[in-house]
Amino acid sequence: MTRIRFAGFGGQGVVLSGFILGRAACLHAGKNAAMTQNYGPESRGGACSADVVVEDKEIAVPVFAQPDVLILLSQEAANKNASWIPGAKLVLIDEDLVHLEGEDPKILKAPFTRMATSLGRRIVANIVMLGYLTDRSKIVPATAMEEAIRDTVPPKTIDLNLKAFRAGLAVPGAG
Questions:
Q1: In whole angstroms, what is the distance from residue 70 CA to residue 57 CA?
Q2: Where are the beta strands (DSSP E) in 20-96?
Q3: Are 115 and 121 in contact (CB under 8 A)?
Q4: CA proximity to 8, closest of 71, 53, 63, 66
Q5: pLDDT digit string, tens, across residues 50-87
Q6: Which of 45, 67, 147, 171 can bridge 28 by disulfide, Cβ–Cβ 3.0-4.6 Å?
Q7: Residue 8 carries which DSSP code?
Q8: Distance between CA 112 and CA 6 in Å, rounded?
Q9: How far apart are the first and last CA of the chain?
């Protein structure tokens, strides 16, 4: 079983990221997945999170006390979820939006938002992050994630989203 928490603010595609991962696991990788989400009353800018459980067998309870993988896309999310960092096996952060004290080999940094902006649309930062997550975690194969992206995003944005995903897959090393 792998437990993943995506955390950031509304408008970053946090819930969509969890949905795409769950879809990739269930429909394209032969696994089971369950997702819960939490967000503030604001449609944009408020705290937001999505928890996903991916498992080879049936999932009895889709909630958890500690994520295996923690993705932090805003400083507020990092502050709110800081107590989970020590117990996580992998922590991914947007290095331009999240600053953590000290060094830890399980904390991997990449410029998701900056990379998305260089592709022409800041809004695909979550898809860049999914590429990075796919490469670093191996929760689902890249082909499964690509299919889930194709199935989920609006048809006219498929090419941009796949380009963003592949950019995340190709991020060299860890920051």
A1: 22
A2: 32-39, 47-55, 69-72, 90-94
A3: no
A4: 71
A5: 999 999 999 988 889 999 999 999 999 999 999 999 99
A6: 147
A7: E
A8: 14
A9: 27
- Centre a 10 Å sphere on the Cβ of residue 3 and count the other Cβ atoms it contains: 20
pLDDT band for position 175 (50/70/90)? very low
* DSSP character at residue 102: S
**Bridge partners of residue 53, in order along the sequence:** 3, 34
Nearest Cα neighbor of 126 from 27, 48, 26 is 48
Instruction: Report the alpha-carbon distance of residue 3 to residue 51 in Å, rounded.
Output: 7
Tokens found for residue 149 = 């992206």
Q: Which CATH class is domain 2-169?
A: alpha beta
Question: Domain-by-domain residue ranges, the chain?
Answer: 2-169
Write out pLDDT tens, residues 142-173. Answer: 999 999 999 999 999 999 999 999 999 999 86
As to burial, measured by CB atoms within 10 angstroms (0-12 exposed, 13-18 middle, 19+ buried), residue 58 is: exposed
Write down how long the chain is.
175
Give dist(CA 83, CA 63) in Å, integer.
17
SS3 assignment, position 25 = helix
